[in-house]
Amino acid sequence: MNQDEYITNHIDGEPPLLAALNRKAHVDLLRPRMIAGHLQGRILKMLVRMYRPQRILEIGTYTGYATLCLAEGLPEDGEIHTIEIDDEMEDFIRNQFNRSDLKNRIHLHIGNALDLIPLLEGMFDMVFIDADKRAYCEYYEAVFDKVKKGGIILADNTLWSGKVLEEPHPGDKQTLGIIRFNEMIAGDRRVEKVILPLRDGLTIIYKNSASL
Ligand SMILES: C[S@@+](CC[C@H](N)C(=O)[O-])C[C@H]1O[C@@H](n2cnc3c(N)ncnc32)[C@H](O)[C@@H]1O
Question: Is the CB of 71 under 6 A from ligand 1?
């Protein structure tokens, strides 16, 4: 048994709907490794349980796996908005949401997050950035003023398989995007931040009361 198996054997199980989604993604889709998966999914749900956000925004839906995990932690009257640019994923995603008891808490938006974020009304308590690695800085800037003081921004894949530690190839725009993001966050005095070495790196950013 490896460490990952040991961990998943000793934490909350993957709910049957999510386990089925995980299997379906591995059979039907080209990049199933993009989904959060058992451990990260349970962590996202736990963070929502502990932090108790009322409104969450996810940038990058893919199959809806993480959306369902985040929605699972929400209170009855909480809501999550999730944005996916790939309209070919829409039927797959809606199908998954429709199977869930949580569907009334979920609002799917199809389009480019950079176009849609300015159109979203209201403030968010939590944002999960998990879309195009080249544009993390732009998502962060687009969303920052829509996050309440005391709110949290999570950013996934911020260690990018360790590539952030190496000299990036000038053509590797994804690694360059993540490095640019990590440097921007490190220098942003409006927020407190940690990087958890979880899976591919998960940054937790806290918008403290000193931020404008
Ligand atoms: C890593 S996957 C998301 C995985 C999902 N959050 C999860 O953990 O289950 C990234 C998704 O972001 C989408 N994406 C990329 N650029 C985007 C953009 N500008 N706006 C919205 N979605 C985008 C991709 O099509 C892809 O489905």
Answer: no
Pairs from 115-122 (Cβ < 8 Å, separation ≥ 24)? 116/83, 117/57, 117/59, 117/83, 117/142, 117/143, 117/146, 118/142, 120/57, 120/81, 120/146, 122/55, 122/146
Q: Whose CA is nearest to atom 9 of ligand 1?
A: 35
Q: Are 131 and 139 spatial neighbours (Cβ–Cβ below 8 Å)?
A: yes
Q: How far is the CA of 210 from the centre of ligand 1 (A)?
A: 31
Q: Is residue 196 domain-resident?
A: yes
**What's the pLDDT tens digit per position in 86-131?**
999 999 999 999 999 999 999 999 999 999 999 999 999 999 999 9
- The verdict on residue 172 lying in a domain is yes
CA distance 40 to 23: 16
Q: Is residue 101 part of a domain?
A: yes
Computed over every residue of the chain, the mean pLDDT equals: 96
Domain count, the chain: 1
Q: 168 exposed, middle or buried (CB, 10 Å; 0-12, 13-18, 19+)?
A: middle
Do 124 and 56 contact (CB within 8 A), yes or no?
Answer: yes
Low-confidence ranges of the chain (pLDDT < 50): none
Closest CA to 18 of 54, 55, 70: 70
Range of the domain at 36: 3-207
